[in-house]
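Technical annex, item 7. During the second reporting period the consortium partners agreed on a shared format for inverse folding records so that results from different sites could be compared directly. Each record opens with the tokenized structure and is followed by the designed sequence. A conforming record, contributed by the partner at site C, is shown below for reference.
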């Protein structure tokens, strides 16, 4: 309880709090995480999201990608951890969220300043001419989506072998340079270059708060305050002392 109170106080007193989120924040919205017992990578082969493999096997990849992401995300709703971040933004305590997630749940919760480090599932992008389309214009269960130019469309999120969107990268670095407290929720910190962002924050003198029911790659290295709880429970507890 004392540690929670102290953590809440740090959040309240922060000058530039940013959140860094991963799949764990959406686990309680019934979106599977990537790693762990029921993780996506236990069910599907990660090469389905390898850009070269995708270009050569797009029908097969699209079938699985639709099951893995689009069918699930469509039906998902934010949980209290997402709404907690919305409330913190409303109070002008939280300045931005850098998310690795492509599930749109921070947007659905109402947050405005969201940096989607790994892209999004709202749009599709042509593998050749880079034209973008709204995903709603396609029936993904029926056909592999194609561009007007005839090439295959891919989801506008980052595949293995692709770069981080330049704009998101620049904005994230800017926020990392500004932040004095970073709140990490639900990420293992396994995937580069996203995984180095908390290290950059720490190097810049930021305090690191982490919420995760399991230890991550950050916990015993850079985390100053570790709340070993699921995101919804931790958010509800912190809320009592902040909002
Ligand atoms: N609340 C908070 N954290 C949770 C919860 C929960 N209810 N349930 C699980 N977690 C934690 C797990 O303990 C784990 O540390 O969420 C984390 C999920 O880790 P990953 O599945 O590795 O997800 P993430 O870190 O977001 O993955 C990074 O990997 O494959 C890529 O591009 C994909 O963006 C993704 C990246």
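Designed sequence (site C submission):
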């Amino acid at each position: 309880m004392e540690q929670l109170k102290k953590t809440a106080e740090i959040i309240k007193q922060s000058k530039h709090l940013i959140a860094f989120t991963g799949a764990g924040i959406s686990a309680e919205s019934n979106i599977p995480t990537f790693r762990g017992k029921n993780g996506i990578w236990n069910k599907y082969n990660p090469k389905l999201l390898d850009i070269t493999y995708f270009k050569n096997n797009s029908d097969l990849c699209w079938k699985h990608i639709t099951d893995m992401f689009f069918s699930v995300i469509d039906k998902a709703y934010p949980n209290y951890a997402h709404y907690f971040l919305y409330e913190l933004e409303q109070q002008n305590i939280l300045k931005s969220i850098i998310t690795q997630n492509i599930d749109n749940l921070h947007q659905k919760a109402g947050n405005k300043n969201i940096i989607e480090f790994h892209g999004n599932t709202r749009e599709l992008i042509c593998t050749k001419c880079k034209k973008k389309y709204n995903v709603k214009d396609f029936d993904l269960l029926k056909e592999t989506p194609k561009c007007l130019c005839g090439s295959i469309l891919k989801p506008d999120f980052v595949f293995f072998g692709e770069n981080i969107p330049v704009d998101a990268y620049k904005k994230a670095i800017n926020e990392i340079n500004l932040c004095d407290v970073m709140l990490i929720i639900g990420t293992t910190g396994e995937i580069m270059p996203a995984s180095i962002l908390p290290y950059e924050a720490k190097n810049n003198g930021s305090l690191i708060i982490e919420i995760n029911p399991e230890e991550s790659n950050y916990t015993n290295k850079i985390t100053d305050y570790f709340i070993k709880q699921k995101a919804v429970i931790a958010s509800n507890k912190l809320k009592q002392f902040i909002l």
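DSSP finds nine helices and nine strands in the chain. The longest helix spans residues 58-74. All partners now use this format for quarterly exchanges.
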